[in-house]
Amino acid sequence: MKYFSVVVFLLLSLSACGGGGSTPPPSFDPPPTGGIGRTGNAISVGAISGFGSVISNGTRYDTTMATFTIDGQSGSQSDLAVGDVVLIKGTIDDDNTNAVAETVEFDDNVEGPITVGSIVFDAADPEAGGTFMVLGQTIHVSIITSFDDSIVPDSIAGLSDGDIVEVSGLVRPDGSVDATRIEPKTLLPGELFEVTGIASGPFTGSSFMINELVVDTATRSATFDNFPNNRDIAEGDPVEVKGEQALGGTSGQELIAVRVEFKGDRLIGDDGDHVEIEGFITAFVDAEDFHVSGRPVMTDLNSTIFEGGEPSDLGLNLKVEVEGEYVGNVLQATKVQIKEAKVVRMVALVDSVDPNPMDDSLPSLVMLDVTVEVDPDLTRFEDKISTNREESLNITHIMTGDYLEVRGQEIPPGSGILFAVILERDDPDTETIVRGFVESESPLTVLGVQINTTTGQNGTVFRDALGNSIANLTDFLAAIDVGSVIKAKGTEDSGGLSMTAEEIEIKNE
């Protein structure tokens, strides 16, 4: 059995239309299916969760013969990283087990300098995320955003005004980006900034807008490439712009364009194509008729499988992954995964590993006596150790005594089992961290881990959600309830069933 996580990713350039109303799609018969072993075309958009091939949306694609395109240039698999959102086209068997990639495309959402004064986050809880801006694009950072290991700390607190970064992620209905990966970039002489998005007016003949960015097409006589029938740029066109940043502009952000490329709808396919799209619901009529990243989706409440929630939970702006087959230009969904959920975090040493369970359960490991389950095709593995780093890290590389950070979700709720959305292996340390929902106040327990405290001059420090000090354990317990989110940092106790906290903080969910 597989548990599907809260994660984890559609570039706006992959969609020709965004939000707006939706008209009910015509009724049609279910798409044809062949027997096991039938091979058909496949289209997938999602963040990379692992290598050894390319793993995205829970499907492992053989990339032995694939062609890679990185930001419009010929590239290779080594140019990609976990968290990058990619478009994969290839073939897949009817049982969805044997997938072969023919092309793998990566286009960042934006590459440029962080706007001065735009970084916003809670200084008391930077790991929870925040926002910043790059070239007029608002970037949302969360606890499950992957950061390049050169960004220290690996949270929004590791970013600074003016840093040049490349952002990959999923586009929200308002045009902002839900970042799945952020990495620093060094532009060589002659290299240009990039932004991908939806063109909007006013169209003056010398400029247009992408969200809050003014694109100046006159100063450098920008070329316009791949526009249908050589027509002019128009409202709603998906475009990629490369250019040089300039100060000023009506929004305070301006890009002097060298090239404007029409990106079109690269998700167009044929009847019967297998399609997997991760993104936000951009238009919503009801649970049987909605759009994901501008792509019409139809479900059947009698046959479509809903995971992570119920059909009644669907609505505008919700992050989902839809899987099914094309009928005309409509994706008839056989499965809808609701991605919204609350995230917990654990940093500790590994007590034991079971990479090959004998039954149908997922591979797992134990930290602080907590079972952590991983899905080889869904968990995002990242190796951040200093030496002998494993580029294709997976559960078989994890050993007893390894020092891990796991971010994920308790599935099922109250089970005490943590499903890993992101698993990072780091250099050994003794610092132990548990962040999650309070299960008991006496003793104080999170995810089955008992949190012990000390008193005296060097005793446990207690803080509220604003970072202010709380006098003692009694006052701290009075400020929380079962279900409150707290973060405890300290050391693991002997036996691994509990920890002694140096600091405990109340956190916002």
Quick rundown:
The chain has one helix and 40 strands. The chain has 509 residues and is an all-beta fold.
Q: What does it look like?
A:
With 509 residues, this protein is an all-beta fold. The protein has 4 domains: 12-20 and 39-107 and 267-338, no CATH class; 110-184, OB fold (Dihydrolipoamide Acetyltransferase, E2P), CATH 2.40.50.140; 193-262, Nucleic acid-binding proteins (OB fold (Dihydrolipoamide Acetyltransferase, E2P), Beta Barrel); 344-507, no CATH class. It is globular. Residues 1-37 have low confidence and may be disordered.
Approximate shape: globular
Distance linking N and C termini = 28 Å
Question: What structural class do you assign from the helix and strand content?
Answer: mainly beta
Query: Helix coverage percent of residues?
Result: under 10%
Task: Round the Cα radius of gyration to an integer and report it.
Answer: 24 Å
Keywords:
13-stranded mixed beta sheet, OB fold (Dihydrolipoamide Acetyltransferase, E2P), 46% strand, single chain, 4 domains, 509 residues, 1 helix, mainly beta, disordered N terminus, 1% helix
What is the fold's blueprint, element by element?
Layout (H helix, E strand, L loop, with lengths): L38 E13 L2 E3 L2 E4 L4 E4 L2 E3 L9 E9 L5 E8 L3 E4 L6 E2 L8 E5 L2 E5 L4 E2 L16 E8 L5 E8 L8 E6 L8 E4 L2 E4 L6 E3 L12 E9 L7 E9 L11 E13 L2 E4 L2 E4 L6 E3 L11 E9 L2 E9 L5 E6 L2 E3 L9 E4 L2 E4 L6 E4 L19 E8 L6 E10 L4 E11 L2 E3 L2 E4 L8 E3 L5 E2 L2 H6 L6 E8 L5 E10 L2
Parallel strand pairs: 1-21, 3-7, 4-7, 11-14, 12-14, 17-20, 18-20, 23-26, 24-26, 30-33, 31-33, 36-40, 37-40
Antiparallel strand pairs: 1-2, 1-6, 2-3, 4-5, 6-7, 8-13, 8-15, 9-10, 10-11, 13-14, 15-19, 16-17, 19-20, 21-22, 21-25, 22-23, 25-26, 27-32, 27-34, 28-29, 29-30, 32-33, 34-35, 34-39, 35-36, 37-38, 39-40
